């Protein structure tokens, strides 16, 4: 890394981290926002006429339809968060960084302005605003993940750090809730988020590439404001053109370019051959099952806490704050996953060079502990969430945030290790889109618990815990594949 470009790259890294931390994944602070929406009487007309005041134990029973409406909004928004990753990944691959980020800014600003100016009478607009908010956020994340390419062997650590920041951004809605309780209106908070779009635009043109950041990084690579100024001189235009051509070629190269044999084999394979591979199929199962647990937990947490707290509004607020605070620490948990993968990759590749094994297989093997650890964390989180003891939910919150930060960081890192870079955007988008379809099950599961199961989630929890055990098959198969290689 040249000394001249180091300050620019560090600025890009830190501002990208701030962007993901403050904007990308705010949807997952939904529990805090629901608390505010209920205080503002959103969808309160769905409650029965004889419902008591806010906070009564009777309210939960009488306002079941209100809880279903909020869960339906979250289900739709979380579905769009994943499903739209596929078309947005294609947009990023096809139209490059600047176009993708301008689309993200438009969606995000439109969503925050919509939420700012709606009221209880127009609350149905949340069905439009929340999906727009989450699609804009995921585009921010996708365009920032490539920043890891600027830092060579620390690439996986930075990718997981950014995914951890995405998770931690859910604390933004906690801040909005706390400000609301101090007298700052919901409208003022979301107008502030809208105004921040000026910062996003400035970062797009000053600190981000117009195309993609290649890996490995070519010599004298420039981006941001410096790459725009290069277009002014004729000689510099030629140099920039050559760089962009090289960038395009390098971006289409596989993740691990140390050995020419595997590279040529990977380039010869089509996108659909990877989609229908066993490796991709089991990764989809692994992601879908663990993600369903997290979405179901977040979407129904307000209802769960109200039930366990016997309708005590202050107690529900206290546990809601505790959950949101733990979410903030996702940015601290996620890098450990990437650091583990980076260290193991270096170790296994040194062993591979001594034994003559492919470097690509050694790099893939470094993902096995991460996949297995994520599955075990999810299993522990699922078991704690299934036990109806209110104080135990503090442990659930901790395991949930660690598991979730490992999940998304590990997902992105695994895809960069297991598949060629030319297909990363499409494969990342496809696996998220397909897992989104599975996440739609959270709403019928909620209806099943509230209907035929008469608010007893035991059978559902046991079934989902068994599915969590199935996710351990994925790291075992990857390990066996690496051993054969």
Automatic annotation (TrEMBL):
Key word Coiled coil present: no
Alphabetized InterPro entries for the sequence: MFS (IPR011701), MFS_trans_sf (IPR036259), SLC43A3 (IPR027197)
Subcellular location: Membrane
Membrane topology category: Multi-pass membrane protein
Gene Ontology CC terms: membrane
Keywords of the record: Membrane, Transmembrane, Transmembrane helix
Name of the protein described by the UniProt record: Solute carrier family 43 member 3
Predominant place of localization: membrane
A Pfam short name: MFS_1
Regions crossing the membrane: 12-37, 70-92, 99-118, 124-147, 159-180, 280-298, 318-341, 362-388, 394-415, 427-446, 458-479
Top-level taxon of origin: Eukaryota
UniProt GO MF annotations: transmembrane transporter activity
């Amino acid at each position: 890394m040249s000394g001249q470009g180091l300050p620019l790259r560090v600025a890009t890294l830190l501002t990208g981290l701030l962007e993901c931390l403050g904007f990308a994944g705010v949807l997952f602070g939904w529990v805090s926002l629901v608390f505010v929406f209920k205080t503002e009487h959103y969808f309160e007309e769905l409650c029965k006429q004889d419902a008591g005041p806010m906070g009564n134990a009777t309210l939960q029973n009488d306002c079941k339809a209100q809880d279903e409406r909020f869960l339906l909004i979250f289900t739709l928004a979380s579905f769009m968060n994943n499903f739209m990753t596929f078309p947005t990944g294609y947009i990023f691959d096809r139209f490059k960084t600047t176009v993708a980020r301008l689309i993200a800014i438009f969606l995000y600003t439109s969503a925050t302005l919509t939420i700012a100016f709606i009221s209880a009478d127009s609350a149905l607009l949340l069905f439009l605003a929340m999906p727009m908010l989450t699609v804009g956020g995921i585009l921010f994340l996708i365009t920032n993940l490539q920043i890891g390419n600027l830092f060579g062997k620390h690439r996986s650590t930075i990718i997981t750090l950014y995914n951890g920041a995405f998770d931690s951004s859910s604390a933004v809605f906690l801040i909005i809730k706390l400000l609301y309780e101090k007298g700052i209106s919901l409208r003022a908070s979301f107008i502030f988020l809208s105004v921040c779009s000026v910062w996003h635009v400035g970062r797009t043109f000053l600190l981000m590439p117009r195309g993609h950041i290649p890996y490995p990084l070519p010599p004298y690579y420039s981006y941001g404001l410096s790459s725009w100024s290069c277009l002014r001189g004729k000689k510099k235009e030629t140099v920039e053109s050559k760089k962009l051509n090289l960038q395009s070629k390098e971006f289409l190269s596989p993740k691990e370019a140390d050995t020419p044999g595997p590279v040529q084999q990977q380039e010869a394979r089509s996108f659909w051959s990877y989609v229908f591979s066993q490796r991709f199929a089991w990764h989809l199962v692994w992601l879908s099952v663990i993600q369903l647990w997290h979405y179901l937990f977040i979407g129904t947490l307000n209802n769960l806490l109200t039930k366990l707290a016997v309708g005590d509004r202050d107690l529900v607020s206290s546990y809601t704050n505790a959950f949101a605070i733990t979410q903030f620490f996702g940015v601290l948990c996620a890098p450990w996953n990437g650091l583990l993968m980076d260290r193991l990759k270096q170790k296994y590749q040194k062993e591979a060079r001594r034994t003559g094994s492919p470097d690509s297989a050694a790099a893939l093997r470094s993902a096995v502990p991460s996949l297995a650890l994520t599955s075990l964390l999810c299993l522990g989180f699922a078991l704690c969430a299934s036990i109806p003891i209110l104080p135990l939910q503090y442990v659930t919150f901790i395991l949930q945030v660690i598991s979730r930060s490992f999940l998304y960081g590990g997902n992105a890192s695994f895809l960069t290790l297991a598949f060629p870079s030319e297909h990363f955007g499409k494969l990342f988008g496809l696996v998220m889109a397909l897992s989104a379809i599975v996440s739609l099950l959270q709403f019928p599961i909620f209806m099943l618990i509230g209907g035929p199961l008469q608010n007893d989630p035991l059978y559902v929890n046991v079934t989902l815990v068994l599915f969590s055990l199935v996710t351990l098959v994925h790291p075992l198969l990857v390990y066996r594949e690496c051993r054969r290689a």
